[in-house]
Amino acid sequence: MLESRCFDEISVGDTASLTRTLTRTDVKTFAVLSGDLNPTHVDDDFARKYGDGRLVAHSILSGALISSVLGNELPGPGTQYVSQDLRFLKVLHADDTVTASVTVREKRRETGTVLLDCQCVNQAGEVVAQGMAEVFAPTLKVVLPRHEVATISVQTHDKFAAFVRRVKPLRPVPAAVVHPCSDAAIQAVIEATAEGMIEPILVGPLAAMRAAAEQAHVSLAGLRLVDAANSHDAAQKAVALVHAGEAAILMKGSLHTDELLAAVVQRESGLRTERRLSHVFFMDVPTYHKPLMVTDAAINIAPTLAVKADICRNAIELAHALGIARPKVALLSAVENINEKIISTMEAASLCKMAERGQILGALLDGPLAMDNAISREAARIKGIDSQVAGDADILVVPDLVSGNILAKQLTFMANADAAGVVLGARIPVVLTSRADSVRARLTSCALAVLLVSASGSTTATGTSGG
């Protein structure tokens, strides 16, 4: 309950306080609400480079805590500020535990105001802020329940950053960029090159690539250019660069994905392996506790059991390259029980048995799992599912391309997820970027490919291989 204290109920020396731990979400929420987006408050990379690695909380947050004591406790509901004087004595950080307290110093009957000494102390006993507040005490006695207020969710995209950072110490990987003849495609190349991820070889019509660079207001000076008659010719020449050991990554420019992959899968001149090609969406979903892979939502329309096994193997290989030693693979269906009328449940059970028998290695598989069980421990608990994968999946293997595509786009457009993408199962990773991708997503797509090449121990055309 909230209870106000009117002027006559207040005595000099009365005190009240509250203690609160300032979370990272608190700091970022305050940044959004105040518009103060100083990177010291919101950017982890900035905090590591220029500070001690901790996000700095806005100093005025201590004033907000004092305001909470005044409005909720002393004098309580109905209090109105006249003035607040504060001096900030120590830096406040996210994850600090702060005790804000107020003590009545003086009552001014002629104005009906109360003066209070204010202080905020951190978990180390250090005074963070101190000063004085003058307020109008409530004129009416009020006792009422504490209102439930709307919850605030600050959605951040910080899961990709760690993988981009892991690439920085590595040597740039030679990448054949196929038909980069749009400003977005050229920009993606420039961004990845500036980050030290790739040494690009631009393959396409020279005039078109230079026009795209001019439109993007960037220079191609110092970059290797390979002339091609058209997008089809560019794809063929890029694949030839891989065979020649001059490129270890293929990167899609402004041609259609099918055209690029057609050159990759050609039996004689392509980059096929024993393993089926598949695509992985690597997603930063703000409402999920870690990065999430969705596969296959772009290449295999109606995969058979054997193809699904390769889809699993490809995604597991990516997870290993990203440092996930034993990824948790959720095999999705509409239900969590095996039903002979729902083929995806039968195939999920078979894939789990294959993993149990050593036909799929390096991961923990479980399925069939419905989507809610795969990502929510609570949903799995309610349904009585005892699983190490449920609620903690790293990889979601979808039944078919349609369901996977819908899922990935739902996460992107309804859950504000960022999605990077890479094609696996060829001799080298193939980076797929889109005009609609954010800079974060484009760089992360490149980072995935670079980490795959690094994990294979090669920066030439051997790349990833199946088996």
In short:
Helix content is 34%, strand content 23%. It is α/β, with parallel strands linked by helices.
CATH superfamily of the largest domain: Isopropylmalate Dehydrogenase
Oligomer: single chain
Overall structural class, as computed from helix and strand content, comes to alpha/beta
Largest sheet: 11 strands, mixed
Q: What low-confidence regions span 5 or more consecutive residues with pLDDT below 50?
A: 460-467
What is the CA-CA span between the terminal residues?
66 Å
What global shape is seen?
A: elongated
CATH topology of the largest domain: Isopropylmalate Dehydrogenase
Count of discrete structural domains:
3
Portion of residues in beta strands equals 15-25%
Helix content: 25-40%
Classified by CATH, the class of the largest domain is Alpha Beta
Strand order of the largest sheet: 10-9-8-11-18-17-12-13-16-14-15
The CATH architecture of the largest domain is 3-Layer(aba) Sandwich
Tally of DSSP helical segments: 15
Write a structural description.
The protein has 15 helices and 18 strands. With 467 residues, it is α/β, with parallel strands linked by helices. The chain has three domains: 2-143, Roll (Thiol Ester Dehydrase, Chain A), CATH 3.10.129; 156-273, 3-Layer(aba) Sandwich (Rossmann fold); 275-425, Isopropylmalate Dehydrogenase, CATH 3.40.718. It has an eleven-stranded mixed β-sheet, sandwiched between helices. A hairpin with a 5-residue loop joins strand 17 (418-424) and strand 18 (430-431). The model is unreliable at 460-467 (pLDDT under 50).
